[in-house]
Specification:
The protein is mainly α and 238 residues long. It has helices at residues 11-18, 32-45, 60-68, 99-118, 127-139, 149-165, 177-182, 193-196, 210-214. Helix 4 packs across helix 6 (149-165). The longest helix is centred in the middle third of the chain and has 20 residues, at 99-118.
């Protein structure tokens, strides 16, 4: 196995279009009001709790921004000529709108809905009211002016989960928060397969990301497998 990052089809083109994923810095696509909405929304979709930090702390909005600025955000590789008909859930994404268009109009519609219902935009609502507003979007009862609230929420939910668990290379999952929550080790190590046959035995190591390897913050062996360190709580004393 090579020590280089897997060359997933289209990955390098999307990284180029979306900016350097390793530098969160300024937002590439999102505008300030959109960042404000998304920061509040992802914090309710995956909130910080007694299990650990949530989507806000994991910089999921940075992930969303980078993806929207990429080829994916503009549907650069998708068929975009109709006819457009209402599809079944099994048929996947059927909208003629790009993710960029759905987010831009959807956020505007969501804040407009909250203003009509609660006299405040989403970010300034109390958490429980935010939850109720997101529930209205999820079930489609939120009256949006431009885009389907159900479509907007479904895309936001899916992308929030992706940003929480994707490799930090893409801007989210900061400090590998999502991976630490579920005990995912990240890039495989050469000794990992032997643990698969052990039932109910945790693989207690510090997770390693592709970004860690690229930045020289993690090492690989001669075959390109990650060298994992045991978690401090699991290291023998003495």
């Amino acid at each position: 196995m090579s020590s280089k990052r897997p060359d997933v089809p289209g990955m390098r083109a999307e990284l180029s279009a979306g900016g350097d994923q390793r530098q969160p810095g300024a937002y590439v696509f999102l505008q300030s009001g959109e960042v404000r909405f998304l920061d509040a929304a992802v914090a309710r979709i995956i909130p910080a709790d007694d299990l650990g930090p949530g989507a806000r702390e994991a910089a999921v909005v940075v992930f969303l921004d980078r993806q929207l600025a990429s080829v994916w955000g503009g549907h650069g590789r998708n068929y975009r000529t109709g006819p457009w008909q209402e599809g079944t859930p099994q048929q996947g994404f059927q909208s003629p709108l790009t993710p960029q268009e759905i987010y831009r109009t959807g956020i505007t519609d969501a804040d407009g809905y909250c203003l009509r219902q609660h006299r405040k935009i989403f970010a300034f609502l109390a958490p429980l009211v935010q939850d109720a507003a997101l529930g209205d979007m999820e079930n489609g009862s939120a009256d949006f002016e431009t885009v389907s609230s159900r479509l907007f929420f479904a895309l936001l939910l899916r992308n929030t989960i992706e940003g929480f668990f994707a490799d930090p290379l893409y801007g989210g999952n900061r400090n590998k928060i999502g991976w630490r929550l579920i005990g995912f080790p990240g890039v495989a190590s050469s000794d990992y397969p032997q643990h698969l046959a052990q039932h109910n035995v945790g693989y207690q190591v510090e997770p390693v990301s592709i970004l860690d390897i690229e930045l020289g913050q993690a090492q690989v062996d001669a075959q390109g497998y990650a060298l994992h360190r045991k978690r401090r709580s699991e290291m023998p004393s003495g």
